Amino acid sequence: MIIRKYLEKDWSRICEIHDLARLDELRSASLVDAFLPMEIAAESENLFEYDLFVAEYKGIVAGFIAYDEEEIAWLYVDPALYRIGVGRALVNTVTKASSRTFTIEVLKGNTPALEFYKSSGFTEVGVESGVMPGNEKYEVTVQVLCNAINA
After folding, report:
1. Contact at 8 Å (CB) between 3 and 51?
2. In angstroms, how far is the first alpha carbon of the chain from the final one?
3. Could you give the CA distance from residue 73 to residue 48 in angstroms, rounded to a whole number?
4. Could you give the domains of the chain?
5. How far, in whole angstroms, is CA 79 from its chain's centroid?
6. How many angstroms separate the CA atoms of 128 and 143, rounded?
7. Distance, CA of 4 to CA of 143 (rounded, Å)
8. Which residues on adjacent β-strands are paired with residue 4?
9. How far is Cα of residue 115 from the mean position of the Cα atoms in its chain?
10. How far apart are CA 139 and CA 133, in angstroms?
11. How far apart are CA 55 and CA 145, in angstroms?
């Protein structure tokens, strides 16, 4: 697996990955009606204001991660490639290269994501409710986690 910086040529592939995996995420939280395709979500949620990396597996982009100094804001993996280490490789690239504490928000009900982050060294530190970033007409509850380095 190769982790590298996002390139413009990756755009169509990360759109495909996001749209498939985001639907899985929203299904888990009973929020499918809140789905926005990547073309809209990237702009409304400021994707390109984050550091953005992709994971290549067997020559194709298999997932991506976007983060800043405090937060992992986006992590999506092609559903056909779940459970082979793509997400973990992306998270480890970000967290192991820094002594910073990162937070992540997981939609309430998204048990697979919650279990994944906990197994990746994150600890639940709270629950917050508000509107969904980028699609503010939906109320959401999120479980807030941070990596255990400085928790």
Report:
1. no
2. 29
3. 11
4. 2-147 (3.40.630.30)
5. 13
6. 7
7. 29
8. 54
9. 14
10. 10
11. 23
- The residue written with tokens 């197994």 in the block is 119
With the C-alpha atoms ordered 122, 51, 64, 41, is the resulting torsion angle positive or negative? Answer: positive
Alpha-carbon distance 48 to 97, whole Å? 21
CA–CA distance, 68 with 26 (Å, rounded to integer) = 23
Longest dimension (CA), the chain: 40
Query: Is 143 a residue whose pLDDT tops 90?
Result: yes
Tell me the residue length of the chain: 151
pTM above 0.85, yes or no: yes
Six token digits for residue 15: 């759109």
pLDDT tens readout for residues 19-35: 999 999 999 989 999 99
Cα 117 to Cα 87, 113, 123: the distances in Å are 10, 6, 8
Q: Strand 135-147 to strand 72-77: parallel, antiparallel, or no bridges (unpaired)?
A: unpaired
Tokens coding 22: 């985001």
